[in-house]
Amino acid sequence: IYVSAPGKAILHGEHAVVHGKVTSNKAKMALAVSLNLRSYLRLEATSTGTVGVNLPNIDTFLHWNLSELKQFAPSVSGNEQLTLGAAQLTVSVWSELPTGAGLGSSAAYTVCLAAALLCASGAISSPLKEWEHTARWCQEELELINSWAFQGEMIIHGNPSGVDNAVGTWGGS
């Protein structure tokens, strides 16, 4: 599975959205646009008995044996089920977006990760056919991707506005 998501720039209203500040009785609004800079993610099934994460932009390449990860299966909370036998995969992520520059690199990453994992699990379709160069998911699938990407942004940032992951999911402005 190969996916990408754009970064973003907030042209107006960033302070209101990011910091929850407003200067009048108006709602918090911002004008954001997607950039022609993207993050990319490739999710590959393997038969190596490992889970791997490759982040070449930061020179990080990690791999864990599934047999070692199985000890953590009992600690999964809630109703989640951990099926480690099916999780033999490598996730590779690279980006044209600089980190820490306010261009939505973390949101582009969470959008890519959400889309790839949802696609791999069968929760959303795999719209890109072998002969196609670009494809789009339906509105319902995009909303699901966005909701999971927002959860990722919450883990990374604590209390995100939702603007970054929305732009990363839908693009445009």
General description of the model:
InterPro entries: GHMP_kinase_N_dom, GHMP_knse_ATP-bd_CS, Mev_gal_kin, Ribosomal_Su5_D2-typ_SF, Ribsml_uS5_D2-typ_fold_subgr. With 173 residues, the chain is of the alpha+beta class. It has a single domain (2-74, 84-170), classed as Ribosomal Protein S5, domain 2 (2-Layer Sandwich), CATH 3.30.230. 31% of the residues lie in helices and 26% in strands. It has helices spanning 14-19, 66-69, 105-121, 139-157, 163-170, and strands spanning 2-12, 31-45, 50-55, 60-65, 89-95. It has a 5-stranded mixed β-sheet with strand order 1-2-5-3-4. Strand 3 and strand 4 (60-65) form a beta hairpin. Helix 3 packs across helix 5 and helix 4 (139-157) packs antiparallel against helix 5 (163-170). The radius of gyration is 17 Å and the shape is globular. It starts with a strand and ends with a helix.
Task: Based on the model shown, name its key terms.
single chain, 173 residues, alpha+beta, Ribosomal Protein S5, domain 2, five-stranded mixed sheet, 5 helices, 5 strands, globular, ATP-binding
Q: Short summary of the structure?
A:
The protein is an alpha+beta fold. The protein has helices at residues 14-19, 66-69, 105-121, 139-157, 163-170, and strands spanning 2-12, 31-45, 50-55, 60-65, 89-95.
In helices, the fraction of residues equals 25-40%
Strands, count: 5
What's the tally of helices?
Answer: 5
- Give the termini distance in whole angstroms: 26 Å
Strand order of the largest sheet: 1-2-5-3-4
How much of the sequence lies in strands comes to: 25-35%
Structural class: alpha+beta
Quaternary state, please?
A: single chain
- The number of domains is 1
Order of helices and strands: EHEEEHEHHH
pLDDT < 50 runs, ≥5 residues: none
Largest sheet: 5 strands, mixed
Determine the CATH topology. Answer: Ribosomal Protein S5, domain 2
Average pLDDT for all residues: 85
**Structural shape:** globular
Please name the CATH architecture: 2-Layer Sandwich
Alpha carbon gyration radius:
17 Å
CATH class: Alpha Beta
